[in-house]
Amino acid sequence: MTIEISWYKGDIKGFLEASKPSPDAQTDSLPAHKLHETLVWLNGDKAVAVIVTTMTGFLLIAEKVANLTHQWL
After folding, report:
1. Which residues contact 48 (CB under 8 A, 6 or more apart)?
2. CB atoms < 10 A from the CB of 55, how many?
3. What is the pLDDT of residue 37?
């Protein structure tokens, strides 16, 4: 299985490793990921899934924490 998103393409093991927070992360809290509706197309032994996703993260700007929320398909 291959995971392909905007910032990663590869197997699940590599995706989980790449998803870990970096050692220089600006906050102790991890981003919240929410998976919403999922559409799946099957064709023989292959499938494509499209998932509406919301990701909330935090960023330190001028000594204040900003809440960043992104939603995409």
Report:
1. 40, 41
2. 13
3. 87
